[in-house]
Design goal:
- This protein has 124 residues and is α+β, with helices and mostly antiparallel strands.
- It has a single domain, classed as 2,3-Dihydroxybiphenyl 1,2-Dioxygenase, domain 1 (Roll), CATH 3.10.180.10.
- 21% of the residues lie in helices and 38% in strands.
- It contains two helices and nine strands; from the N terminus they run βαββββαββββ.
- The strands form two sheets. Strands 5, 6, 7, 8 and 9 form a five-stranded mixed β-sheet that branches. Strands 1-4-3-2 form a four-stranded mixed β-sheet.
- It starts with a strand and ends with a strand.
- The mean pLDDT is 94.
- Keywords: Dioxygenase, Lyase, Oxidoreductase.
- One of its GO terms (molecular function) is lyase activity.
- This is Catechol 2,3-dioxygenase-like lactoylglutathione lyase family enzyme.
Amino acid sequence: MFSHVMIGTNNLEAAKDFYDKLLGTLGIAPAMVDRHRIFYRTKTGTFAVSKPINGEPATAANGGTIGFVAKSQEEADAWHATGVANGATSCEDPPGIRAMGDMKLYLAYLRDPDGNKLCVMHRM
């Protein structure tokens, strides 16, 4: 259904440094830079960060969350710890198991340095 997700930033170099480290914990290669944007490409989709083309400041989406997949609880914990160590803030409940009926998910949430809400999920 989706080809990509793109969020805004006010500091492309800082965003690249942050996301290279954060997504590296999930085995995703460092970003490819294309002028005012960076792209992380995988077999399952593309995540991009861009300076706004209209020249206005980037703002975080109120109510929006970008979700990433982790292979294990340990990978999700490494993602969360790496984010916090590199300028993100933990949000929502602490990383842990959430039961949704018969389905159990291990979730962790962050706000990146630009305020975008991120989640990593491991299906148990």
